[in-house]
Amino acid sequence: MLLNPVISKLSGKLVVLASASPRRLEILSNAGLRFEVVPSWFKETLDKSLFKSPYDYAVETAKQKALEVAHRMPFVSCLYLYTVDGLILEKPTDKQDAYRMLSRLSGKEHSVFTGVAIVLCHDKSSDTDYKVVDFYEETKVKFAELSEEMLWEYINSGEPMDKAGGYGIQALGGMLVEYVKGDFLNVVGFPLNHFCKQLGLIFNSPPESPAHKIKRESDEAWSLVNSLSEGAANGEVELLENGKDVSQSSMQEHIVIGPECSRQDIPHSIVSLLDGFKASKTLFTASKLKVFDVLNSSNSLTLEEVAGQINASVLGTERLLEAAVSLGLLERVKQQNTSVYRNTEQASRFLVSESPESLNGYILHCNDMVWPLFSHLENAVREGTSQHELAFGKKNEDVFQDAYYSKDEVKIRFMDAMHSIARVTGKDVATAFDLSPYKTACDIGGCTGAMAYEFTKAHPGLSVIVFDLPQVIEMRRHFQPKEADDRVSFVAGDFFKDDLPKADLYILARILHDWSDEKLDVLLSKLSKMCTPGCGLLVSEILLDEERKSPSRALLQALSMTEGKQRSPTEYSDLLQKHGFTLKHINHTDNLLDAMLFVKEDPNDRRTLLGCSSASIETAELE
Ligand code: SAM
């Protein structure tokens, strides 16, 4: 049910949210808003001393973040939001920092500011214009006097670490708070009430409202366009006239007025889906031909130089580079009257193969393995399984042993793909929970050990055994970091057949989605037998929402799976509960993988079992 008429107007459309904060996403989706998340690449580096007040800084950062997304994807969507917490509240860097922050707040009233920017995008015949409506919300929060013991107990719960201000008012942190003056949701992460009022002004504004002003500044129609994957079903253009929704009644009038009005007939969301595969293949091809690597070693190169270095035709290279520029992967600039190409900041960081956060391995896996599978998607849908045989001429019973590890070259490429994702997301998974009670971990299917090294880096008291198939373990040195941590060791074996190493924490990162419930029962009962009460099980996957509607990334990945499936937290919890593991914490990391921490219950302690089994998701704490 939608109580707010403005939100209900937006609910049939897709809004782009330039922040991936789980708390903001939750507030907005609880309000019935549908949106697509495109996290902003704008770094929060504005000089705070230049701003008169915390809220000026918050609003300006919000604006820059939203505009960055709007500029990067101008034809994708036209309503962008971003919120940012102000100067007073930032995330602690470590436990000591959390202590400093929280002890400063003890017994005092402080302010929480959220800056929000709504970017309205306007297509002119040649380019795109942006208008920004921004605002901030302030809420005052008074903390109780906090004893040292309380402070450290709270810090050791792990909750403060990813929270602005070092506390989460909606969870354990609520116990520290004496009172709140103002909008409670603003402290949680998003000022919903103020946001709805602003939307009201934009949609139903009286003559002097900001939205009206925006409209009067131009004779042309301002539009909010729905787009991106989920918006495909309702990708119509909505027109605003004098701030009113006139999408139906005045359509004719607008078609007559403006040259851009023919754009009403373009289903932008569908067009972006039509072109999606071309964009992916552009990225894959530029990576495969090492465009980002050659530009990295020379900083900037002319078209002819790039063509020479990648051993390709000048005409073909020109098309590829221009497409890459249009996608924001490369930049073309003038240097002494000559055009040169160079990597964008993101390309240098994520696409150059030698970069520590390179996704190159995963991109090449997508090009060489996933792309051929997707070209047989129709068959995969008819038959309900992946198409390795059709794509690669070889039938497979076990995707790893029969397909990925059939040839050394394919194996290294697959391991490289896992390695690259694990290096980008591993730190967030490793720091998702307080793991201080655990001393030995076993990373089941831990592949190259990239994730294990992140765990030992984050937890000085923890050692990790990587358990994987012998074919994988024999290649481990290929991926070993320069300064390998001797707390990481490797054991070869088959997790369906062999004994597992003993540990007090088991890690299952990207394992469960690959297998059917029946096969997982084999692995999980083995794990259950290994675990004494109190043992931990950390599952890292892309978690589906409970309605299994998003994120698309997980559902698209499932299309080329052989036998596994993507699951929601409840589905994972049900699967693991059968084997005596109870869900304790969930962390939506905002990175490529989320994390859930389960604990093995004592089967003799019926009280604990009953208490947790019926409502494990409700009782699990959302980090
Ligand atoms: N956990 C790693 C990560 O998140 O980066 C790798 C995930 S990868 C999708 C799955 C891993 O499970 C591969 O390293 C694969 O070799 C391993 N694996 C598959 N079947 C296995 C088996 N029967 N026994 C042991 N490991 C297996």
TrEMBL record:
* The organism of origin for this protein: Cyprinus carpio carpio
Pfam families linked = Dimerisation, Maf, Methyltransf_2
The name this protein carries in UniProt is Acetylserotonin O-methyltransferase-like
Name one process (GO BP) from the record. Answer: methylation
Q: Does the keyword RNA-binding apply?
A: no
Where does the O-methyltransferase C-terminal domain lie?
374-581
Q: Which InterPro entries match?
A: COMT-like, COMT_C, COMT_dimerisation, ITPase-like_fam, Maf-like, SAM-dependent_MTases_sf, WH-like_DNA-bd_sf, WH_DNA-bd_sf
Q: Which cofactor does it need?
A: a divalent metal cation
